[in-house]
Amino acid sequence: MFKRFIASGAIFASGFALCAVTYGGNLVPLAKEEISSPAAATVTSQTQKDAQAKVVWEYAWTRDSSDLNKLGAQGWELVGISDFVTTSGGYVSSTSYFYFKRAK
User: Fold this and answer.
1) What is the per-residue pLDDT across 39-78, written as a single tens digit (0 to 9) for each?
2) Alpha-carbon torsion 44, 49, 52, 53, what sign?
């Protein structure tokens, strides 16, 4: 138990030291999520522009697994699967629901 604690501490300290070397020993901007490199500023402004362009999604679902390829070809992206298991009179049945989204 104690060895795991020491190993975890050593990994943390190594990562911290690597960050300090990478960012020139000044971790305050990193802690404040401020990156002062020009490339990072370009990425940040692009991210802000992308956030302003709001995407409207449409959603679909199916229970038939044979529809998966057809929906994928139409541009739908699988985002979730729900599997419901029911028991009745000693019988077990399972129903899967597939959920999709795509940009309108």
Assistant:
1) 555 666 666 766 677 889 999 999 999 999 999 999 999 9
2) negative
| CB half-sphere exposure, 37, CA atoms < 13 A | 7
Distance CA 41, CA 71 (A): 38
Which pair of structure tokens corresponds to residue 23?
């960012």
- Specify whether the CB–CB gap between 29 and 35 falls below 8 A: yes
What is the chain written as a DSSP string?
-HHHHHHHHHHHHHHHHHHHHHTTT--HHHHTT---SHHHHHHHHHHHHHHHS---EEEEEES-GGGHHHHHHTT-EEEEEEEEEEEETTEEEEEEEEEEEEE-
